[in-house]
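SEQUENCE AND FOLD
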Amino acid sequence: MHGSQPQTIRQLNLVTALDMVRRNGRISRAELARALRLSSPTASELVAFLLRHDLVAEHGPGQSNGGRKPMLIEFRASMAHVLGIDIGSERIVAALANLDGKIVHEEIVRTPSHRTAVVDVVIAAGRDLADQVHNPMMGVGVGVPGYCDRSSGTVIYASNLPGGWRNLALGPLLEEAWGWPVLLDNDGNLAARGEMHVGTATKFRNFVFLALGRGVGAGVVIDGNVYRGRREMAGEVGLWRMGDGSQSLEDIIGGEHWRTVAMDWVGRPDVAAFFDMCRDGHAGALAEVQRRLEPLCVSLQNTITLLDPEALIFGGGLTASWDVIGPVIQRRLAELAGDHVPEVAVSTLPQRATLAGAIADALESFAQSQHLLAQANVL
C-alpha cells in the first residue's frame, strides 16, 4: 500500500498541473511550481512529461521580471474535442468544440415530433460531428428544457419536448450509443453558465438569467456558481403561480400564448407581426404587452428583493422583440423596485447561451484533465 503512494501523488500532480495549464492558457514552469506549491525540479519534471505526451507545447518566451525570460507552456487545445448539444422544442443545435471551447463544426436540425426520433437525431448528430475530426472525444454537455437529475442523467420532466418527456434516462442512453461521458442539465442553468463564460455576464458573479421563449425558465448564479437547489429545481420560474393561482407565469408569457395574442390582434399566429404593430405605436397592442408582462415584472421585483443580484439578463426567442418588451420591463421595475433595480441586459448570445453552457459543462476542468491523461495512457 505504501509503495503505491508516490505514484498516486505523482498522478495527482500531473492531473493538477495539466488542469492549471489548461485554465491559464499559458504559464511558466516557475508560476506552475508556485501555484501548485511544488519544487522547481518537480514542476519541470511534470512539464517535461506533459510535453513528451503532446498534452502541452512550448509557446515561447514570456515577459522577464529582471532575469532571463521564462519559457511559457501552453495547453494543446486541438488535441481533443467536446460536444455541446441544445435540445430545444423547435430545433436541436449540436456543436463540436476544441478544448478551448472554440466551435469548429456545427449542425442544426428541426426537432422531430416524437421522443424516440429526437434521441435518434441527437445520436446521429453527435456521430456526424465526431467523424469530422480524428482526435478523441472528451465528453458531451447536453441542455434540455425541463427538470433534470444530473447525477443520474435523467430528464425528470420536460413538457415542451415532443410527447412531454418524463423520467427518460437520456444521459445513459447517449453514453451507451457514443461511449463518451455525458453531462445533462436544464437549459436555463446552462444558459446562465454560457452567459457567465462568454456572454453578457462575464463581469458578474451574482445574477439571474431569464429565458423567455416557448417556455419560461431561469438560471440563478450565486458567487460564480449555478444554484440548483435541493432537488435541482431552482430556476423553474415558469411554474410560479400567478394571481389566484389558476395560471402559471408560463401560461401568461410562454411562447404559445404570444401566438394566441397575435391571433387575436393580427388574425394569425404571427408573433413578429404583433410586435411590429407595437412598433407602429398601436396603443391597444402596447397595452396588451404591458398587461402580459406585469406578472413577470412583479415576480422580478420579488426576485430582486430575495437575491439582490448584480444583474438580470434576458434571453430566449422573445428577446428578438427586446426593443418593445425591454422598455416596458425596465420602466415597470423602476416603479416597483426604485433604486434597487440591478443592471438589466439582453443576452449577447441569442439562441446560443445554452449551447455555450453545454460546451462549458463538457469542459469540466479537473475531470477533463484526468480524462486527457487517461486517453494518453499515462494514468
The first helix runs from residue 5 to 24.
